[in-house]
Amino acid sequence: MDIALWVWAATIAAILALIALDFVTVSRNPHEVTLREAGTWSAIYIGIALAFGALVWWVWGGEFGTEYLAGWLVEKTLSVDNLFVFVIILTSFAVPAAYQHAVLLFGVTAALVMRAVFIAVGAAAIQRFAVTFLLFGGLLIWTAVQLFRHRDEDPEVDDNALLRWARRRLPATDRYDGARLTTSETGRRVVTPLFFVFVAIGTTDLLFALDSIPAVFGVTQEPYLVFAANAFALLGLRALYFLLRGLLDRLVYLSVGLSVILAFIGVKLILTFLHELQPAIPHVPTAVSLGVILGILAVTTAASVVAARRDPSRRAHAGSVRAHQRPAEPDDRLSADPGRDEPRDA
């Protein structure tokens, strides 16, 4: 694709404008988001993402339009796994409902910045070193295997090294003071639990970027489409969280579906590397990738619905790339109201 500088500028400006709109909406009126409001905003963001895809299709052709759609679908799917972890973090720190959307907005903004950096580095690496396809493919396959092995587990907040360091080093209070990150207590400045929530969300975004960027490069190597797919998938994440919060625990096979998708894209990247060396080795077309991803999502969703109906007590898990000791009692964090729980270690 031959993307003019003004097209990049216009796209980034539009994304920043949407973020600013979200920020103004959140900062002017902190409130608990209703299901209707979340549904409306989710529909708007999905509509914007699909409209952008139609624009890509019209201006640059069907091949690039399909690549964008596949990339956006991959990132949207991975963002749902983000939501599981966000629920765990918000629940662990008992973030009041009125401030959850501010935390999520920070998470989305931080994720966009981090992924923009990773996209620039990844694009440069792919252009200069074909072996990058092999490295990305290996990373995704390893992640897929680990996610499948630990599909019935959740990431632990205390696994975060930076968060543990901050808790040890910084004077803190266990009392929220509105949306403030710091407050005054007994005559000294201390950080509030909201500060630690931001640390947890930001570092989680970094870890997810390590998987999501190689995944989207597996369906398109165009930096512009990679950036747009990530941006438009993440922009609606805040609204999607409030829309699906009560339904996430029913997607019992989501981690399995994600592991299969990541493994498929990892194999595709390795085949791309081998195809560069030996053209006789088949290359997986983008349309085939899109069909496979849609099929996996359809099967995963249908199987989750059936499993949840057969066993209503069954709960979904985000999956983890490392093993954790499973709790003795059923984990009902995903179905709880984060604003009403007591902090586990805040």
Based on Cα principal axes, name the global outline. Answer: globular
Unreliably modeled segments: 327-346
Strand content: under 5%
Mean pLDDT: 80
Number of domains as seen in the coordinates: 1
Adjacency order of strands in the biggest sheet: 1-2
Please give the alpha-carbon distance between the first and last residues.
48 Å
Largest sheet: 2 strands, antiparallel
Please tell me about this protein's structure.
- This protein is mostly helical.
- The chain has one domain (5-335).
- It is 68% helix and 2% strand.
- A two-stranded antiparallel sheet has the order 1-2.
- It is globular.
Could you give a quick summary of the protein structure above?
This protein has one domain (5-335). The protein has eleven helices and two strands, in the order ααααααββααααα. The chain has helices at 5-28, 35-60, 62-92, 97-128, 131-149, 161-169, 193-217, 223-235, 237-244, 254-277, 286-310; strands at 182-185, 188-191.
Key descriptive features of the protein:
single chain, two-stranded antiparallel ribbon, 346 residues, globular, mainly alpha, disordered C terminus
Blueprint of the fold:
Elements: H1 5-28, H2 35-60, H3 62-92, H4 97-128, H5 131-149, H6 161-169, E1 182-185, E2 188-191, H7 193-217, H8 223-235, H9 237-244, H10 254-277, H11 286-310
Antiparallel strand pairs: 1-2
Helix pairs in contact: 1-4, 1-8, 2-3, 2-8, 2-9, 3-7, 3-8, 3-10, 3-11, 4-7, 4-8, 4-9, 5-10, 6-7, 7-8, 7-10, 10-11
